[in-house]
Design a protein that fits this description.
single chain, 5 helices, about 35% helix
């Protein structure tokens, strides 16, 4: 009987250790974004402040209504990326990605550092204040500039 109890306890311990860590949810944001087709859907994956920043850009005349989705880092059709690094610190995370395929030619090979925060119980990308921290200071704002250069 003791063998059975120890075996069950060991299995439960092993199962609890093998569950994905919450940091795995960070990468799921990018997979979810690959299915986004409009700006309102993108709101599921970006912080409220990030979405407000884009809306304020439209109100201020920096973006037109149709370009709102383009102002956010892309993960849609024809775009593939690889995760270079990920650092999770409580309710904040930093992920560095590299586009391996992108419809805009000069974006292939582009590396970007994205800041994520836990908001409303899930991971969301925060472009409102990150300003692109990390390697070569490339972040969402540089991404937008790179798209303009086409």
């Amino acid at each position: 009987m003791k063998k059975i109890i120890y075996t069950v306890a060991a299995l439960l311990f092993y199962a609890s250790c093998s569950k994905p860590l919450p940091s795995d949810d960070v990468s799921a944001v990018f997979d979810g974004l690959s299915r986004v087709r409009n700006f309102s859907e993108a709101g599921k994956y970006y912080t409220k402040d990030s979405m407000a920043l884009v809306e304020d850009s439209v109100k201020g005349g920096l973006l037109d209504e149709k370009s709102r989705l383009l102002a956010l880092p892309s993960f849609g059709p024809g775009i593939k990326w690889s995760e270079i690094s990920k650092n999770v610190r409580g309710d904040r995370a930093t992920v560095k990605i590299r586009y391996t395929e992108h419809p805009v030619e000069n974006m292939t090979g582009y590396e970007m550092v994205l800041e994520l925060v836990k908001e409303d119980g899930g991971w969301k990308i925060d472009i409102s204040g990150s300003g692109g921290k990390g390697g070569n200071n490339k972040g969402p704002r540089d991404y937008i500039e790179n798209l303009r250069v086409r």
